[in-house]
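User: My advisor, Dr. K., asked me to get a structural model of this assembly before our group meeting. I'm new to this, so sorry if the format is off. These are the inputs:
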Amino acid sequence: MNLNSVDGGFIAGLEAQLPEGVLRKVEARYLEEPRGRYRGQAGVMALPQTTEQVSVLLRAANVARVPVVPYGGGTGLVGGQVMVEGPLPLVISMERMRAVRAVYPQENVLVAEAGAILADVQAAAQEAGRLFPLSLASEGSAQVGGNLSTNAGGVNVLRYGNARELCLGLEAVLPSGDIWQGLSRLRKDNTGYDLRGLLIGAEGTLGIITAAALKLSPIPAARGTAIFVVKSPQAALAILSLARDRLGEGISAFELIHRQGLEFLSETLPQLRQPFAAPPEWSVLVELGLAGGIDPEAELADLFEVALEAGHALDGVIAQSEAQRQELWTVREQIPEANRLVGSVVSHDISVPLSAIPEFIVRAGERIAQLGDFRINCFGHLGDGNLHYNVFPAVGRRREDYESQRGEVQQVVHDLVHEMSGSISAEHGVGRMKADDIERYGDPVRLAAMRAIKQALDPNGILNPGAVLKA
Amino acid sequence: MNLNSVDGGFIAGLEAQLPEGVLRKVEARYLEEPRGRYRGQAGVMALPQTTEQVSVLLRAANVARVPVVPYGGGTGLVGGQVMVEGPLPLVISMERMRAVRAVYPQENVLVAEAGAILADVQAAAQEAGRLFPLSLASEGSAQVGGNLSTNAGGVNVLRYGNARELCLGLEAVLPSGDIWQGLSRLRKDNTGYDLRGLLIGAEGTLGIITAAALKLSPIPAARGTAIFVVKSPQAALAILSLARDRLGEGISAFELIHRQGLEFLSETLPQLRQPFAAPPEWSVLVELGLAGGIDPEAELADLFEVALEAGHALDGVIAQSEAQRQELWTVREQIPEANRLVGSVVSHDISVPLSAIPEFIVRAGERIAQLGDFRINCFGHLGDGNLHYNVFPAVGRRREDYESQRGEVQQVVHDLVHEMSGSISAEHGVGRMKADDIERYGDPVRLAAMRAIKQALDPNGILNPGAVLKA
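Assistant: The format is fine. Below is the predicted structure of the whole assembly, which you can bring to the meeting.
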């Protein structure tokens, strides 16, 4: 691919077409990413205010064959937002396109620009008496454009689906600079190929999403939250099955918690109140969101009773107030922060078929034990088959001690995931971190189709080079 | 596109690679379609039994540049299953690949081959205590491969989504003959572009789906069905809003029925029992599927009470038994049959943003009245914004009398849909019938992207030429 660095001529050409303030010097924070694994580089930044400006930017970059890195909230965990080598790119940050353009409560639709912060979109939906169910740890800074580009998951996928399922239509600029006016508010539209679904999850390599029509849901009339101590991951799945039989789609979240995560919380965030005096080996956080007329606390109590009878549950706490609900959620939500403070050797964002989870946990533990002395915090979105399988130094050792083992540990985990028909990137995406991995583990026919699609839509390869597909 | 007719050499080459019985003489029924608008042609048929045989067929066709028409249950309404002109194609019917390969009740997943009849898939799910919610009039003969290729909709989209949302993974053969092993049972897998979503709804123009991992749901503990007489379509939407506020996702179907449909039923199927002595101008069929502990009949009674108070509902029938539920559904489900018996001048499968529906109905009626004397049966999936807007001869006239007006009526309806940001094919797809229409109404940037994708994945253009994109 023959790409060129941003240069003075390129910048001057853009300046002539764009209002003052769109082009900026590159600030260091746009070249960092949360895990500190990648350090980006850039020739110039743009902060467009309109879709037309994005179009001008891409058209110029395409003609000059200048690489372009689309930048959202910067919260991605796989290096998709920073280009670490090659010609100096144009970084386009969407932060000034953050309007909620319209809310249609009767249609359960909200139209937001790509730069809108996820929490602001949630709030706008709430204000209209509706729920935008996408919810994840970084929602206070992540932007919906980035959420869509990475097909974000989070804690409510079990009930509401991934970002792709929450989007009805897109407005996007293709690498040519052409604007696709696809902001459909329709639930049903079978007039051709699913370009929407293709751009979602493409991590900015096929086009830049500038706005989206998002699907809202009714706000459940009543919510209830509990943490059950379970005998094993297998028992947790049995409880999920029981809960589904009783409550249908009423289960909004079903999150696995391991003792290790609670111990990390005690170590690093001792002020945080925990539900059990002694951290249980395995527990699950269950969230219900139910229609009017049903009492979620009573349902949780019934569920617990049945699970206890069956020997699946050993103990439990059911929130009796909104404050207690928040307290239980805080435990779950602070686990990633505790992980960060402890410092992992390597983290994995994997999924396997739901029924294979217990076996995966056993086998992965065995294989890692063969490599050395580690602590494992395995937690996450059990209801989706999605685990964050994070590996930490043994007590008294530092992550630096394991630097040479990182790759080995990761390969052991990913090999096992692959053997068990799982995914090595369940929700975080490929970015630059896993571009090699999908070549290793991905279906070759699909990869060839992906390359053909990339070539077809971005023949000069200007968009986010090196992300998803190796350059 | 330089494509070649099937010839003796092509057939002999395939016979050498395939077991006896795969290649067949073409039977007339594979060249027909339900509306009798298109008459297909073919050089030879294949009834493969394995994915590998499909691969052999496509590889040979790709080398010989022979067009291929994938054939499912033959129930498509837009001519996607018949090639009416050009070189004689190979028709591949999937009917012998009809196994339900596996059911994973705990995972809510079922893996079926493309030729499995939709009703058989529903039954297999039911047997495992689960629901496969895709449901449509032709489910007794439609095949899941065709349902996926057309991204089928039906009566439960409101709650469960279109076919695309009901599919986790695919096995498919690409035009090259390469087999994509993508039968993922994962809820979350962000390892690259959404090839699954792209093949779904591509109407067999990008690949042939051979098997699918389908998403199952819990069976609602209790169901309830009612028909409410409503003051207007606007009142129907108000009731939908009320119902959503009270029952969340518990509403499985919300179907609009017009007086004209009930009158057609009286005319053509007089033995069928109707819920009201005099057919009401507008009514809605409401179906609830609720978790245990709630009584759907009581919920429907409460909803009716509130809707009556507010002046939205005028009368109502709530089914008091399973037999009555079936009776109400039969009314809704027999409307297409009554339509067929009366014989439409032209049918439309359109969607507009939900809140625009009342205005659409008024304006479309006005515009058609200007063209002449017609009867209009406007009914369908109101909850999805999807109406079947079918136009019939006035009393005492025949459809043949209007032959010259068909195009005009259709254009008036489609123009209005387009003005109102709707879709001219909400659920039936493009096929050959609407390939011109999407060129007229479609976003040109999206169309160009679709053409680029088609060229990238099927460079010789062998797959279902003329469907979706004009040849």
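One thing worth pointing out at the meeting: Residues 322-342 of chain A form the longest helix (21 residues).

User: Perfect, thanks a lot.
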